[in-house]
Amino acid sequence: MNTQDILRVGKSHLSGLSGHVFDLLTVSKPISPDAAINLSKVVSKLSPLLGNLIEFNTVEYLNDQKDFRGLGEWYRQDPGFPDTVFRGCVFPTPGFEIKAWFPLATEITARFKDSQNHFQYDETYICMIAWLPEHLIYGKPKIIDVCVVSGQSVAKARDDHYHNPPDYIVLEPEDTKNRTRNLQQTNTNGYKFQGSKDDLIQAMEVVNSWGENGRKYWPVPEYQSMLRQLISRFPYRLDTNFAKMDRIAHPGIENFKAKVLNSIQHGLAIQQWARLLGSGQEVMIREALSEKLQIIEEDTNKLLR
Fold first, then answer.
1. Residue 78 domain-assigned (yes or no)
2. Is 149 or 22 the better-scoring residue by pLDDT?
3. Rounded to the nearest 5 degrees, what angle is found at the Cα of 106, between the Cα atoms of 153 and 171?
4. How many domains is the chain partitioned into structurally?
5. Which of 92, 152, 248, 296 could form an SS bridge with 123, CB 3.0 to 4.6 Å?
6. Structure confidence by residue, pLDDT tens digits, 114-130
7. What is d(CA 40, CA 99) in angstroms, rounded to the nearest whole number?
8. Do 115 and 188 form a contact (C-beta atoms < 8 A)?
């Protein structure tokens, strides 16, 4: 198999994780509706821990698949990008960047800042794994759905979505190939125009002078040089919200997000649960958790025996 074959087979197996329950950690069932309300407020704090555990176990899951036997092995890179790579008799090295999403949170908070130039051979795919506890707020982590898309397509969608000179520009990293690996830069950044109206008029004149395709994003040195001249002449600020996966308008990710949020879990769509649990309406939350999850007041004395 070649690189694309490895990715295609890996994508098929990862997509098959939907509905899988990982025996990693178990959150006990609340003993009362009030305890359930308190748990619902903090269960999201487990997301970073369980997200990392899911990523580790995904590597083991891929290595258990017979399709890869004799060809190589999947490894987790920590630190490094992508965080899962296949080391074997194929070049370039295929890999998956795995991002876990807890959909009761407000949005997909993961970021993707790597340059388009990092995916010359389309050798890295992004795997997004949506998970919840199997009983919404308690139990073992359960995979709700999986989305696997080309990293190259995500980087291009991000740049095309954000880049709108002179109002907003995306900049490639400097050429750092001659630096040691830990000092090399592969991340793009977004910058928002901060000048006056007169500054904006002048900046628009500069961009118009670039020709018909001057506003189209190009990750090449010649175009990047023009962008750097623009940012040196006019005031811009670094956008700290740049490249959030929830905001880059990638069709595959948007479809995945909508599918997950509309999926029914314990009688309600996930987005309905998210709104309810975030509403602060404790009476309504208590009623829903009691009805949908059968969480009732238990005899405390019985529990202590």
1. yes
2. 149
3. 40
4. 2
5. 92
6. 999 989 899 999 999 99
7. 22
8. yes
HEC readout, the chain: CCHHHHHHHHHHHHHCCCCCECCCCCECCCCCHHHHHHHHHHHHHHHHHHHHHHHHHHHHHHHCCHHHCCCEEEEECCCCCCCEEEEECCCCCCEEEEEEECCCCCCCCCECCECHHHHCCCCEEEEEEEEEECCCCCECEEEEEEEEEEHHHHHHHHHHHHCECCCEEEECCCCCCCCCHHHCCCECEEEEECCCHHHHHHHHHHHHCCCCCCCCCCCCHHHHHHHHHHHHHCCEEECCCCCEHHHCCCHHHHHHHHHHHHCEECCEEHHHHHHHHCCCCHHHHHHHHHHHHCCCCCCHHHHHC
Same domain, 179 and 145: no
pLDDT in tens, 254-279: 999 999 999 999 999 999 999 999 88
Residue span of the structural domain in which 43 resides: 3-158+243-298
Q: What is the pTM of this model?
A: 0.87
